Known about the structure:
The protein is mainly beta. It folds into two domains: 2-137, no CATH class; 143-226, no CATH class. 4% of the residues lie in helices and 43% in strands. The protein has helices at residues 44-47, 138-142; strands spanning 2-3, 8-10, 17-19, 32-35, 52-55, 63-71, 78-84, 92-93, 96-98, 104-112, 115-119, 124-128, 134-137, 147-149, 156-158, 165-167, 175-184, 187-195, 207-214, 224-226. The strands form six sheets. Strands 1, 4, 9, 10, 11, 12 and 13 form a seven-stranded antiparallel beta sheet that branches. Strand 15 (156-158) and strand 16 form a beta hairpin. It is elongated.
Amino acid sequence: MLLFFLATRLLLGTSCTVNDPDYAHADRYYTAVAKVPEFFTPNPCSENGTPVDVFAAAGSPQKIAQIRWWKSDDAKACYPLVIETGAACPRGIVPLLEDGYEERAFVAVGHTGRWARIRLDQGTGWIHLSKAGAIVPYDDLVIGRMAELTEAWDGRIRTRPGGAARTLDRKSVKGVTALDSRRVNGKLWLQVRLLAENPCEVHEPRVLATGWIRAYSDKRQPTVSHFSRGC
């Protein structure tokens, strides 16, 4: 579940304001989520999780920003904000994903070793993960979990990755179960079971088809999204 926040925020104790990301036009491409438990504490508004330094590149000593939790003016909510080095006010709100129920994480678009390249309010930056941190790949997020097809799915399913395809009526597909993943010629594929009934409404939904679909569209948008909070 991709988490964006709405409206313009006035920040507690300051004259600073931040605007939320434009969700309607957001690029949803990601390769994984980056879990940073020292930042994503159970109660970040009161516990003041450890700030996350953002660097220009993996392994670079050049810190370009920091991500911190900041309370809204009514102190009822707090948001992960990007603060550029030397700036007086935060720049914007960081988009997040959930791994499990209320298990927030950064949206990663690449990683190498203990470094993850994450989405910021504008562009991307690199963070270094501690031993407690973890990278959870996109396919691990959706395989064997409650999931749905996104608008990026082209309606086609194949007997094998890159094989002959048949097209299904999108309206007939009410659910999806991701079974496995495979990377072929640099492209990620998901083995799925397409369902004729909503698994949240029917205990054993009827299967329409089983086969392989592309994990990303031509525009690099994910075709399957997981339900971090279940039905």
